Amino acid sequence: MHLLLLRTKPVCAIVSTGYRTSLVKRSIVVIGAGPAGLAAGIAAAQCGHHVTVLERNNTAGKKLLLSGQGQCNVTHSGSVSDFLTHYGSAQQGRFVRPALYHFDNEAVMRFFADAGVPLWIRRDGKVFPKSMQAKDILNALLRKLGQSGGQLVTNTCVQCAEKGNDGFRIETNSGTVTADSLIIAAGGQSYPATGSDGNGYRLAESFGHRIVTVKPALTAVSVRDYAFSESAGTAFADIPFQIVHNGKVSAKRCGSVLLTHTGLSGPGILDASRLIESGDIIRLQLIPPEKLSPDLYSGKRTLKNVLQTLGLPETFLLQLFRLLDIPVTQAAAETNRLQRQRLESALTRCTFSVQQCGTWHEAMATAGGVDLTEVERQTLESRLVRGLYFCGEVLDIDGSTGGYNIQFALSSGFLIR
Could you tell me the pTM of the whole model? Predict the structure, then answer.
């Protein structure tokens, strides 16, 4: 279908006045109908602006529907101050603060409850729709956009955009769209099949913005010469680990780690993946050194059974013993000095060489994006181009697992007024 949106007499105008904006009516185009774009469209439409949300796919929110394996971990129940520590660097924490305090996790829960989608808090603090269906979250956003007067146009891919004296001109595969203000909410580059192919970065660059190098984030890592494929599914809860880059410890983290068929995953590794590069070393402390006391190596019990009392899974120990050439039936008291040294080294500094992080098709988020120094954090307006805004994953913001990315997408969208 051919699309040609002619610019009507401006119904709305955004005039920045610090944290808030005055309600002068203007026409606004939002690029991208994920949670950030839909939130931005809702917020702008509720202010009386004439809003059009452009989506390249035939339906909105394709990536949102995949989140949490289709269950949609929409936010976390922790304090807002705690949220600020889940977005990478201190600079990123400062940047997200205005958006998160403007529309926090409690506001998210109220929003969806009012929209007929009650949420529930899991024991670990993750928040899901009670139905455990991501489609309910998406449908609530779409209903609210329509009720607020916003328009969604699908099957519309933005090819380029520019600003002239009379506003923005956006060229699409279906025609030309014009607007007084433009909001880029086109997402990152992960899961490109959902439409997140990096087009938002190209549009930002065309307006002169610098893009911080993007890489897959929230992804598992594959390990070179991996020896624990038979232990796939084994999990270690909340263990310390180090990332070693070029021979030096580049990061220290603590989190749950999962052994896979090809390497490492689990919340701890996923959250740290933004820091991991091919060739890095990951050292896991499976057991605190102080627990490996000389008393362990006494008595008639097998060494394997003794170590199981420390919480080490049997499947993992069976494979570890084979690698260290220690008989499974060996009594703890029969362990010699060399075996003890090798075993304790493996348990306190279990070392893996990273072959590569996951691909764009596997990563749940994108690290990198529009340089934050070029965006006003109180309004998310470009410092380079007046009337141009960014929200969601297109910015150089990526959060930890646990609902932090969808929360920022919604918070940043609702911040733009």
Answer: 0.88
